[in-house]
Amino acid sequence: MAFTVARDVGATSINDLPPSSNTDQAWNALESSGLIDLRIDGGGIFDLVVVAEVFGMHLSAAPFIGAVLARELVGPTVERVVASLDGRVAIEALGATEFVAVRNGSLFFSDSAEPAEPARSSQIQRNIVAQRLLGFSRS
Questions:
Q1: Domain boundaries in the chain?
Q2: What angle separates helix 45-57 from helix 64-74, to the nearest 10 degrees?
Q3: Which end of the chain is more exposed for a tag (fewer CB within 10 A), N or C?
Q4: How far apart are CA 80 and CA 17, in angstroms?
């Protein structure tokens, strides 16, 4: 199932990578497949690693890791929430409406307008992928 979802929402060209990705398609695929709740449904770390590897193999911008980490913190939810490492930068924040972070042992929530840089890492990833696909690197 992970292979099919990742292939369906994966990039077929550099233009498909964030910020040009279809956020609704990515979230809907994660939600309808049940992959977003893999850990809640009893999946282990190995299962998460395998699914994340499949998403990476297909250059999928689906916010799998960020959403799974958020559900580890807040439990099952229908919100498009992802985990933030430090309350400012969220991993895989594509299309998220909320961010959750842990600071000093407490959970903090913010809406998608507040975190400072959810898309910057996507732009960096896009440049890295472009360099790899085109066979050049910056010196």
A1: 2-134
A2: 150
A3: C
A4: 19
- Burial grade of 128 (CB within 10 A; 0-12, 13-18, 19 or more): exposed
Helices (H), ranges, 10-102: 23-33, 45-57, 64-74
Strands across the sheet containing 98-103:
81-83, 98-103, 106-111
Closest CA to 93 of 33, 34, 21: 21
Tokens of 11: 């990039």
Q: Which residues contact 25 (CB under 8 A, 6 or more apart)?
A: 8, 9
> Tokens representing 131?
């360099």
Q: What is the mean pLDDT of the chain?
A: 75
State the pairing for strand pair 98-103/81-83. parallel
Q: What confidence tens digit (pLDDT) does each residue in 106-133 have?
A: 777 777 554 434 334 444 444 444 445 5
Return the higher-pLDDT residue of 104 and 75: 75
C-alpha–C-alpha distance, residues 43 and 35, integer Å: 10
